[in-house]
């Protein structure tokens, strides 16, 4: 997952600015997870009010004057927990796969679907600016946008065909 890279970037920013408690990083994530273990899932107010978990309040001290401060803080904590949860699930799946010496078969239809999805994602992200330019009246951008949309449509059609072939390949998965 990209969690480790995110932690490194956040920690580097916190250390270089001298604001180790004010910039959210892995230490805050640790205490957020510990608070969830103690108080329960999505019990953001209980976690924030527990003095033992005061470190998670530090990055928000500068925002306390804003009107929607508590809502903003709770939404951040929920998003951050979702990121941590997803990363932990993926890393556990990778650990199990390594333990069981499982490898990916590049010829498996699911891998073709995965490759096409990566192509769709890359194409969409690299050309997302075209819609604004096209709306602004840029004729060349409009032409390129139509070509990109046609490519996306073809990729999605290929993915749909891949998906219809998947059930037959997944009927007898290995335990």
TrEMBL record:
Coiled coil: none annotated. Signal peptide: none annotated. Gene3D superfamilies: Homeodomain-like. Residues 21-166 form the CHD C-terminal domain. This is CHD3 protein.
